[in-house]
Amino acid sequence: MSRLIVVSNRVPVPKGGQPPAGGLAVALSGAMEERGGVWFGWSGDTARHDEASEVRTLERGKVTYALVDLSQRDLEDYYAGFSNRMLWPLFHYRMDLTDFTRVTLGGYYRVNRLFAKLLAPMVEADDVVWIHDYHLIPLANELRQAGVRCRIGFFLHIPFPPPDILTVLPNHADLVRGLAAYDVIGFQTPLDVENFETYLRREKVGRRMSDGRFVIHGRAVRVEAWPVGIETKAFADIAAKSDDNTLVQRMDESLVGKSLIIGVDRLDYSKGIAERMLAFQSFLTLDTEARGKVTYLQVTPKSRSEVAEYAAMEKEVAELAGRVNGQHADLDWTPIRYVNRTVGRNALAGLYRLARVGLVTPLRDGMNLVAKEFVAAQKPDDPGVLLLSRFAGAAAELDGALITNPYDIDGTAGAISRALEMPLDERLDRWRRMYERIAEHDVAWWCRSFLDALEAAPSNGASAEPQ
Ligand code: ADQ
Fold first, then answer.
1. What's the pLDDT at 465?
2. Residue 39 and residue 420: Cα distance in Å, rounded?
3. H-type helices in 77-171, by residue range?
4. Contact 454, 183 (CB under 8 A)
5. Is the separation of the CB atoms in 119 and 150 below 8 Å?
């Protein structure tokens, strides 16, 4: 087995055993701890000097964490700027929220070059390098230029948008040219692969070959959908033992017989939290019988507060929760409990299990692990109902969910009523289908399938030409 080097923007060094609230960290932490290797990326700290040029290493179990501090300027341009004010909104189909500047674009390539300069001397010929997500698309190309010839794979955790949206990005051609330096590219869903293929065809820079591989700018690359999973069985076990968690007990006692509806998301506009609250409001208006009998808990840690759009949304969602409560609450009943914090994995699993309905209604999402965690945590003899946006990557797999369009506020409200009233036999049937799927396609499957493909790719470095 080759040595694995994982690269991601942020390296989640374990602190007290809990990974932070973020899909990539949650997905990869367990897999890395099991297989071992090097995890390279930003430390989360700001460098004192403008030119960060050192790698600090930390050993934890089988993993070596290789950490780079970034300067304030790099963080503003590369992270808060180009990655999170251009690529993130654009790839989530939000052209209205994008902000393109030459300065932030320059910062994006500057940090990718810096990472390549620091990482290249650590890479050995038979290592495999696995690069993650939109922050680091050009990294393989930079590594190739620094002389790295080993196999390099890339996984995009967010959606790959259709070409009409991608071409809004002034440097789309460069960005895609950078992808040709990889040996394997993984997307979350077949739709992402299809969007990528359409882009290559329309821009005349590549195509799918008869053996299923792609040729991109003259280089043969394997491109496939590998939907990311969770540690399904472990999460189900934690949920089954969550009764003695004090937070779960407190929540259970406070419900006094009311049905619980749960939403768990980073505070991000892509997650559709405001639309979800409006749907809940509409549900309370339409389904008068339900008033006083349901509690909607939305657990939402703040995220990327340094980006202006996130600060604005924080305010919008908090005001909305206040307005719905002001309108509908009674002396002894608060319809929405809106909480800005992270909770530990045990408590989270227990809260999902207490819930009758899981609301996962993003406007656009690469996959969405909360949907899978909710399913894994249910009681096998009395499962709750997952209400899932058709625009989450997870909808391509979880056909037992009630699929909803989050832009249709009243339609989603109706689906909440339907979920609350669903008879046990239908709940069982839907849940079993979903559980089987996520038990088989768990995070270990995802990791193994991607790495098998990467290790099987011809080791051809930068100069490969397709046959
Ligand atoms: P994210 O956008 O971060 O991930 P998601 O897949 O839902 O979204 O993962 C969030 C993770 O954070 C989940 O494991 C969840 O349990 C955890 N989390 C959220 N709120 C929490 C809270 N209050 N307390 C504790 N934990 C919390 C990106 C993409 C997704 C893709 C993942 C993985 O945007 O589409 O599924 O990467 O590829």
1. 41
2. 43
3. 88-91, 102-119, 139-145, 163-166
4. yes
5. no
CB 367 near ligand 1, within 6 Å: yes
In percent, how much of the chain has pLDDT > 70?
96
Each residue's pLDDT tens digit, 173-214: 999 999 999 999 999 999 999 999 999 999 999 999 999 999
The angle formed by the CA atoms of residues 305, 107 and 128, to the nearest 5 degrees, is 95
Label residues 225-256 b or e (16+ Cβ within 10 Å = b): ebbbbbbbebbbebbeebeebeebeebbeeee
Question: Which entry of 157, 183, 192, 265 is annotated as an active-site residue?
Answer: 157
**pLDDT value of position 413:** 98
CB 324, CB 335: distance < 8 Å: yes
pTM: 0.96
- What is the Cα–Cα distance from 266 to 366, expressed in whole angstroms? 14
- Give the chain's end-to-end CA distance (angstroms, integer): 28
- Separation of alpha carbons 178 and 172, rounded Å: 10
With a CB cutoff of 8 Å and minimum separation 6, the contacts of 425 are: none
Consecutive H or E run containing 39: strand 37-46
Tell me the three state secondary structure of residue 33: helix
Catalytic-residue membership of 172: no
Lookup: tokens for 148: 């790295």
Tally of residues, the chain:
467
Smallest CA-to-CA distance from 283 within 216, 336, 240, 238 is with 336
* Cβ-contact 390, 364 below 8 angstroms: no
Residue 305 neighbours by CB distance under 10 Å: 10
The string of DSSP letters for 258-288 reads PEEEEEE--S-GGG-HHHHHHHHHHHHHH-G
| Tokens 């299990």, residue located | 353
pLDDT, residue 53, reads 72
Q: Respond yes or no: is residue 157 known to be catalytic.
A: yes
Output the six-digit token pair for 263: 């939403």
Range with the poorest average pLDDT among 199-203, 438-442, 463-467: 463-467
Cβ-contact 361, 272 below 8 angstroms: yes
Q: Give the active site residue among 77, 365, 441, 442.
A: 365
Q: Is the CB of 371 under 6 A from ligand 1?
A: no
The amino acid at residue 456 is A
Tell me the one-letter amino acid at 412. Answer: T
CA angle in degrees (0–180, nearest 5) for 206-211-212: 60
Determine the distance separating the centroid of ligand 1 and the alpha carbon of 212, expressed in angstroms: 31
Atom of ligand 1 nearest to the CA of 26: 14
Alpha helices in 336-380 (DSSP H): 345-354, 369-376
Report how far residue 425's alpha carbon sits from residue 250's, in angstroms, rounded to the nearest whole number.
30
> What ipTM was assigned to the predicted interfaces of this complex?
0.99
Helix or strand or coil: residue 342?
coil
